[in-house]
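Page 47, continued from p. 46.
Same chain as before, 784 aa.
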Amino acid sequence: MSSEIKTNTPVITSKQNINKNTENSNDLTVNLKSNSNSKLKVLIITALIVFLFKLYIAATTAGQNDITNWQLFLDVAQKLGIADLYHNFPVIENDYNYYNFPPFFAQALKVVERLKSITNISLGFWIRFFLSLADVGSLFITYKILLQIKGKEQVPIGALILMACAPISIMLSGFHGNIDPFFTFFLLLSVYFIGIDKNTFYSYLPKSIYNYFIKFGLTNLCLAGMVYGLSISIKIVPVMVAPCIFFYLSNNRKRLEFFLAVAFAWIVLASPYIFLIPMEIAHNTLGYKSSFGQWGISRILISILSPNHWFISFYGNQGKFFVLGSIIVATLIMNLWKEKVPIFVQIGVALFIFLSLSPGFIVHYLSWLVPWVVILGTEAALAYYLTSGLLAFMIYNFWSSGFPWNYALGFPYNNFILTYEFICWFIVISICLIYFLYIAKWKKIDIEQYNFVFWINQNSKIITLSILSLISLMAYRDLFIKKGFYIYGIEGNTPEIREKNLFEMSNMLYSRYYIQGKLYPEAINLAQKVLETNPKSADAYNNICVAYASMKEWEKAVEAGKKAVEINPNYQLAQNNLNWVKSQLAATGKISSEPADIVSYLKTPPANFTAGNFINMSLELIQKADNCNAVIACEKAIELEPNNSIAYNNMCIAYNNLLMFDEAESAGKKALELNPQFELAKNNYNFTLSRKNDPNAPKLTVDTLINLSLAFYNAKMFDKSILFAKKALEIQPNNPIVYNNLCVSYIGANKIDEAISAGEMAIKLDPNSSLAKANLDWAKSLKK
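Result:
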């Protein structure tokens, strides 16, 4: 049976007609090629202009505080080592200052620092230069991938031109300085190598490398895997699309080749640290959390539920697994049901699902979607680039203390920007749905049978332009008519004041971060920069105090701490730090001359105080003629080391100075019993005996005993306080001050009846003593 299709109408074709048709066909081909080439020229010129514009921004601005982060991490890596990045900046709940990058990133920073030192051009500029270059590379690779999928005549050049001009890319690479465009470029490059024909790939290889590939049976997937490994060596983010690649590859041999190459590249780039601190690297990179409640679902949850609601905590901690599960389900549909979808499309779907459902958000996440929307056409690209650009512009303007931007420091926002955050999120969800329609079309499902879908397709341009025009008018109203353009994260009357306040806040923030990173001189330098413009900054002095304390330069720490408290007497953190550094200084034997400090040392000794510290303190106190507290310091030393002859010798000296020769004799005698060869103790003991037996020696006074009793009370040594108060009564039996002191000492010793008796005696001797009355009332209240 013939398969030829017959017709009743004869077809007469002349040679002339054939030639004419051929000529028309050739003319059409030439016109199409000419049109395509002209569009490519526009794309290239546009990309070049935007690239230069980004470099101009990078050269004339300081950027976002991520640039300062890179400098911080680089300084720690160079001066302490890359391992210390993980030790000093671990992932901690509710603390966003941590190092969440693989080790390779720190190595790359060192290379950029080398370039900075050679050219004397800032680190921030070079990072943004390479980010801008990565954007150009991503544009080129996206074009090549679309050639693979659509063919040259179907590539959406208009969407690619929009991609080159994407505002979020301009702001991120030219100003912000976050490194996401790097991993995006290498992820795209990996996708390109996955999709390239194996034989075409072999034709690109030099003969020596080609022979190795053939010998070991390697294909383009080996190179694709290594490039993907490089991508996740910059940031772990591309791991989320691994399920797409796994199921897209058609058999286990291909999967094994690809993922072994990934592992090989990642391990090589992470060496040797992956073997030295594997758990720390895993904890920091996989434990990364972005800001919850700043986008989409999480933003809605915190606005309608109480802060302590269980679902907020659940979604904040477990939401990432829900997102990953959604990506895996979509991946299975794209690969296992009907015809497979191109891997470029699959990764685009995964990233749009992520940003639709993500529990966390940071503005630079918006850059992740830039290349992947292009395949959906000009309308989708325009919608995403406009809304993401508007949101990013508003955020950066808020962070930068106003336009023109120079430096941006992240602040939470709760103003008109939220409207554009929700608009952008809605567009992301809409594009995600468009992607599913694209997938359905790819799988040859007739979706246009549904009237709504058909109507949307027919009117997509009008719908898109209408919505975007409305959004643009809203933005104009909110930014300029309602003055939203002039709402800033930092307050100040003029741009100069806001800029000064912004840098002061940044320097204070990074001063603390450098302390955390254990680079204390750098922390002090940043705090001193704050003091140059704001000499009354208690925070700056407090940071200096902490930095010097970390360096164990206790005297400088005390000096800075005192200034912080002088500026702000109610600054409790500074007061706590000052008290601590004073105690550490005292532990070295250099004690404060302020009575309150001395009492605090003896009342609550620092945890690291040793007998030697108390002995040094006793000598300092003797030299300052504070013999009462010197006695107590010796007692504290003896509590720690009962057989310390030096402590007994110093006690002998202090009691001699107090004219308490009996106590001095007892202490000197004990020193010699413990160390008969102690010549200094012999001399002090003999001096004590000579003074004791000298009828002309000065006599002990009641005031001395009262002061000593009070010193023991302040040190919470109540039994000794009572003992010396009673000795004072032996000299002056009717001294009301002594009875008052006895009252409070008995209270401290929990001898309430004796306290009441002493208090009553004090009032009997001095009925007008309000202090004695108060202490007696105190004692009686304890009796009840």
